[in-house]
Amino acid sequence: MQAFNAKMCRFFQTLWPAEEKPIVLGEGQSDHPPVMLIGEAPGEQESLQGRPFVGKAGKNLDGFLEVLSLNREDIYITNVVKIRPTKVSEKGRVSNRPPNREELALFTPYLMEEILLVQPQMIVTLGNVALRSLCGTKAVIGDMHGQKALVTVRHEKQEATFALFPLYHPASIIYNRALQEVYQADLQSLRALLYDPR
After folding, report:
1. How far apart are CA 4 and CA 2, in angstroms?
2. Which of 193, 24, 73, 25 is nearest to 124 (CA)?
3. β-strands 76-79, 94-96: how paired?
4. Bridge-partner residues for 167, per DSSP?
5. Which of 145, 130, 134 has its CA nearest to residue 188?
6. For the whole model, what pTM was predicted?
7. Residue 198: band (very low, low, confident or very high) from pLDDT cuts 50, 70, 90
8. I need a surface site. Which of 17, 58, 111, 131 has the fewest CB within 10 A?
9. Which pLDDT score, from 0 to 100, does residue 13 have?
10. Residue 174 above 80 pLDDT?
11. CA dist list (Å): 95 to 45, 98, 144, 150, 154
């Protein structure tokens, strides 16, 4: 993983020589973890601390881990896009935005390589961006959430099939409280799969 991370850093730093775009790499158990959690992109706190899923996302992660009876260091955590996508308002405030098509096209091949290196027992995606990076642009979280599927990951001449479990993005629950029960039920289904995969 160290060689992969060093390669990613060198490449991405050549892309933004005129501005500072901190790269937030994946972290955690990088050798066949029970879960590889894939989010969309780093937010402000992730970019400042150089770690995925801290700040508000970290609080959501804590709840996720508690339900699954796992520790942060037991799983591997990453994002599709490794830099914080931002926009500037008319008042000059910098805020997060969804990754654009160019960012997704640039970073997705690195995600595929990362998955093949980590070899997780289960990939858990959060929201449509992460789901579509693996299943294509027609995949919809509303149709696939809470169900185990199989996904084939390819990078260069390598290929492998992994178990996939899509979840709603935790931020969507903040905006749509009706999803809270659905999300919790999906987590219980994931827990059952992890501990009794029959």
Report:
1. 5
2. 193
3. unpaired
4. 126
5. 145
6. 0.92
7. low
8. 17
9. 67
10. no
11. 12, 10, 29, 35, 33
